[in-house]
Amino acid sequence: MTDSALPLFGDDAGDREPWVDDTFSTAHRVRLDAHSWVEHVPGWLAGAEQVFEDLLASARWEQRWRRMYDQTVREPRLTAEYAELLDAPEVLRSMASALTAHYGVSYDRLWINLYRTHRDSTGWHGDGPSTRRRECIVPVLSLGAARRFLIRPTAGGASRTFRPLAGDLVVMGGRCQVDWRHCVPKEVGPSGPRISVNFAATSQSRPD
Ligand SMILES: O=C(O)CCC(=O)C(=O)O
Ligand SMILES: [Fe+2]
């Protein structure tokens, strides 16, 4: 057995083991309007690099296709879904528990997206079937390269820009999935790969 295969204990553990700030001490909430908000939690996850590498190597990445008008288009990113939280890696399950405890929403499934380069993206959308309740709380964790995350009113208007770094959470709350649209646009300059972890709750997929 080599050193790197040994379990992490002692002083080293703090540097390498992923660890979430379950006090959410850095959370900063931006009110979008009377009903919707976005919370940015910088540095929520420590050890993000290890989680990124593990997911990149171990997730069952799939190419998805999206129906747009009369065409079927290839999504410019890869996705892996964990329809049951129990099937997700332990580190993601413990993050889901921390989010459930903090936001009072029972996160019981998740999907992760891989933006391979600056040319991968996701267009303006609301999360649709996973967020049918009038008010939802949708946490998204960023890993890997920093990319812009934009949100703008569904009816049109100026967008707000967030730039989550690896380990940051961006949480959409209230009526964000109906009254607002979000996207991760392509970038002009080169960027390394990014993974986002999208936490979902069956309870939020049922209309109230
Ligand atoms: O990658 C992100 O930050 C957001 C992804 C997203 O909105 C989605 O998959 O529904
Ligand atoms: Fe989304």
TrEMBL record:
Record protein name field: Alpha-ketoglutarate-dependent dioxygenase AlkB
Domain Fe2OG dioxygenase: 106-203
Pfam family of the protein (one): 2OG-FeII_Oxy_2
Coiled coil regions in record: none
Molecular function GO labels: dioxygenase activity
Keyword Nucleotide-binding: no
Keywords from the named record: Dioxygenase, Oxidoreductase
